[in-house]
Amino acid sequence: MNQDINNFKSESNYGIWFAGVLVLVFPIASTQLSFSFIYGQGHAERPIISFLASFTVGWFGLLIGYFNCLTTNHKNANLKWIVFIGILARLLFLPSNLILENDCYRYVLDGQMVLDGKNPYKHPPDYIKNNLNNFLENKNHSDKANLLLSRIGYPGISTIYPPVAQYAFAIGSFLTPWHWFGQRLIFLLFDIVAIFLIIHILKLLNKPLVWVIIYAWNPLILKEIANSAHLDSLVSFFLLLWVIMSIYWLRKKHIIWLLLASIVYAAAILGKLYPLILMPIGISFVIRYQKNYQGILLFILGVSATLIIGYLPFIDVGIDQLTHGLRMYNREWIQNEGAFYLIQLICEKLPINSVMPIDRLVSNLIVGIIAVYLSLKLRQVKDNGFSLIYPIQIVLLFWFLFLPAVFPWYLISLIAITSLNPKIWIVILSGVTFSYYLSFLISYRDYPDNFRIGIQLIEHIIIWGALIIGQLRMYIFTKQKTLA
Prior knowledge:
Helix content is 69%, strand content 0%. It is mostly helical. It folds into two domains: 399 residues, no CATH class; 81 residues, no CATH class. Helix 15 runs parallel beside helix 20. The protein is globular, with a radius of gyration of 23 Å.
């Protein structure tokens, strides 16, 4: 035992020890503060500043650990410490109350509907609340059900979440009927497994395993999954599996791995629809390494068949009702927008009528063009499976930057992919985006709306500034390397 400890000390370094302790400050402090966040009570007194301060401490721990891992020898002892701190931080969040979050209440309702054999796309929460006796299988849960239904956001709109998410919700609801804690458990499980998937991919690519620190220690990940129970860890899980299956296919040349890659990629879409924007990259990757059209047809058919099979159990409500919530979301949701705000200002001047708002069409078109461009560039790359990671990373980044609703948890998949290809500007992005939670403070304390606009402006200036500086540094480094 003593020999193991001595080996650990000799192989590790005190900088990363200290960084790990800073990371743990965030879940410890936030869990204590969370009991002051009681739904519907004491909004103005909620310790939002203290919560953000604890996040900042954890984020500095991530930064110290990040630079430590990139500038020192990559020892196995450091990896053990990173994984230990990452898992411990998540477990420390388990007893916490929800902090500024209500999405998981919708998850619980959807999960209960699936468990009870009902279609979650058929009725909005308001209808279910007004006809609760017709939906309750166990009448003893009526008080819990009423409480939960009263806390669901946008109760007049039916669910927007795809089928794989619905099945995950059902597992969470099975664990804790009519309560959100089961959702936390199920998405935390996907989150922890994602840590080990990242390590496995880094092994396959012969990259430093300590890069997993970007995901494992990221306080945004800790908050949005271990506390808020967001389903985005499910999407990260399947995207990472897609990368693994694609690498296996590339190396083993067996068609079964390509089929599995298409299925897990489709499962990511069925978790949340946004991975659909990565389809051009997936197709281009297959074309690059497949000499005939059999591979590309298999990939497209595998994705398409999985999507169809996924939606079949819910199709009885009709396409219009099945997509109603999603269409409402795509038309109306605007929150913490950045680049989209400028697009909106420009499009307001255009004399164009469209079924879908023109500003959202322009935003989607920009991201689509970037995805297609990167997919074409991918075909020129002669690398191994690592060539798939960078375009995924960039498309997810621009998708996030041009969203009309910029929520911190939408970064989760991007952070997972960035652990495979470290970029400091995405680590900075994960910290700056957390200023979103200041909007609650402004709302609760009735501060002038200029405060919110100012914070939002600063947030997005820092985000774009970090990206531009990062790209300039990369350009200069590439030029210097070429000249040398």
